[in-house]
Amino acid sequence: MKKEDCFELGIISRLFSFKGEVILFIDSDEPEKYYELDSLFLEINKQLIPFFITKSSVNKAKELRIRFDGVDNEERASRILKKKAYLPIEVLPELDNKHFYYYEIEGFELVDSEKGNIGSIITVLDNPGNMLLEVDINGAEALIPLNDHTFIKVDRDKKQFFVNIPEGLLDIYQ
Q1: What is the pLDDT along the chain (174 residues), one digit of tens a residue?
Q2: What's the pTM value of the predicted model, to 2 decimals?
Q3: Regarding the domain with residue range 102-168, which homologous superfamily does it belong to in the CATH classification?
C-alpha cells in the first residue's frame, strides 16, 4: 500500500500492558467510526506495514486499546510505539459540499466570493484554534484563514474551493 492511497488515522501513543497491548490515539472528530478495525498500516522506516488486530476495545473516546497479531510482549510493542497509523482512503465515507477531507482539496482552485479565482491550494495547516489554507497566488505562498465565517462550499467536480477572504488580507500578498 502506498502512503498517497491512505490517510493518517492516528498514532500508537503508548504501551498499555506487558502483554503487548498498545493505545492507538485516533485523530478524528468521529473516532467511533474506527472502533471495529480488523487491521491498519503502521509507518515503519518510511514503509506502510500491515498489522492485524486480534483484540481491541475502547479505552477513551479517542483511544483504542489494541493487541496486534505477533505483538505479544512489551519489547515488541515498544518497537511500534509512536508509529503513525494509516487506513486506505476508500474506507472514508463520502461527504457533502459543506464538508471535506484536508487531503482532497490540495490542488483545488481557491475561489473568493468577491475576487473570483485566487490561486491553488497547496495544503491545509491545522493549527490548534487557527486552521489555515496555504495557497499559491502567482508563485507567492499566502495563508488564508479557514473557519465557519470564511468557508462557503467545495465543488469536487470542478475542483474548486469557495471562501470569503477577509477584506484587505490579499493586499499583503501583492
Answers
A1: 899 899 999 999 999 989 999 999 999 888 998 999 999 999 999 999 999 999 999 999 899 999 999 999 999 999 999 999 999 999 887 877 788 888 889 999 999 999 999 999 999 998 878 899 999 998 999 999 999 999 999 999 999 999 999 998 988 876
A2: 0.72
A3: PRC-barrel domain (2.30.30.240)
Q: In the chain, where are the structural domains located?
A: 3-90, 102-168
Identify the CATH number of the domain defined by range 3-90.
2.40.30.60
DSSP assignments along 93-124, one per residue: PP--TT---GGGGTTPEEEETTTEEEEEEEEE
Amino acid residing at 115: K
Please report how many Cα atoms fall inside a 13 Å half-sphere around the Cα of residue 163, on the Cβ side: 27
Amino acid identity, position 149: H
Residue positions counted in the chain: 174
Determine the Cα–Cα distance for residues 9 and 116; give it in Å rounded to an integer: 34
